[in-house]
From TrEMBL:
Keywords: 4Fe-4S, DNA damage, DNA repair, DNA-binding, Endonuclease, Glycosidase, Hydrolase, Iron, Iron-sulfur, Lyase, Metal-binding, Nuclease. InterPro entries: DNA_glycosylase (IPR011257), Endonuclease3_FeS-loop_motif (IPR003651), Endouclease-III_FeS-bd_BS (IPR004035), HhH-GPD_domain (IPR003265), HhH_base_excis_C (IPR023170), HhH_motif (IPR000445), Nth (IPR005759). Belongs to the Nth/MutY family. This is Endonuclease III. SUPFAM superfamilies: DNA-glycosylase (SSF48150). It comes from Leptotrichia alba.
DNA sequence: CTCCCGATAT
DNA sequence: ATATCAGGAG
């Protein structure tokens, strides 16, 4: 079976399982979503939501972050991990948002990743979530792991993986498919001990063949 | 490539 | 105890 054929087998199974998943991150303003995604690095959405529930009571726009002391911000976000880096980046991010972008989050990937704390993964999520702009495939640790296990790629570099996946996955499925892989990676194809024996897509997975 | 770093599952 | 988690910056 070619990669494209296997994709066409796997996709409906995951679609049946996950449907149209809505955003797991909670927010009111677009700026809040960007902050939430920055906080979600190496951290679960559940944890981010616990933190932002309090933080977003006082932070709606970049100006609110400018007025907040960095130490105060650190206390709010401490439990998300990497809190000093994140706090510093969010402060710098707010300054650039105010000075350069006049509070308007840029809609171009190249501009978005210029903002402190915003890399390729974060930018893709923000664009997709806020404006349905799906220019790329979100390749995080889950998409990386599952793509290699399934046998879609043999590579560790997120940008190369993204390009390889783009070759055989129709563009309209890019965003939703990465979302499916992430969900499947969290509850079944977990990093340490994948549950191949109860996996719905095992018949189309190279990793399962080896076991 | 290394550092950042707390929470959670195993 | 330890691996791992919806990454990004230097």
């Amino acid at each position: 079976m070619t990669k494209k054929e296997r994709f066409k087998k796997i996709f409906p199974i995951l679609k049946e399982k996950f449907g149209e998943p809505k955003a797991a991150l909670e927010f009111e303003t677009p700026y809040q979503l960007m902050v939430a995604v920055i906080l979600s690095a190496q951290c679960t959405d559940v944890r981010v939501n616990i933190v932002t529930k309090e933080l977003f009571k006082v932070v709606k726009e970049p100006a609110d972050i400018r007025e907040m002391k960095q130490e105060t911000l650190e206390k709010y976000i401490k439990s998300t991990g990497f809190y000093k880096n994140k706090a510093k980046n969010i402060k710098l991010n707010a300054e650039m948002m105010l000075d350069k972008y006049k509070d308007i989050i840029p809609k171009k990937l190249e501009e978005l990743i210029e903002l402190p704390g915003v890399g390729r993964k974060t930018a893709n999520v923000v664009l997709g979530e806020l404006w349905n702009i799906r220019e790329g495939i979100v390749v995080d640790t889950h998409v990386k792991r599952l793509s290699n296990r399934i046998g879609f790629v043999k590579n560790d570099n997120p940008e190369i993986i993204e390009r390889e996946l783009m070759k055989f996955i129709p563009k309209k499925y890019w965003f939703i498919y990465s979302h499916y892989l992430i969900l499947h990676g969290r509850n079944k194809c977990i990093a340490r001990k994948p549950k191949c024996e109860i996996c719905e897509i095992r018949n189309y997975c190279k990793y399962n063949e080896k076991i």
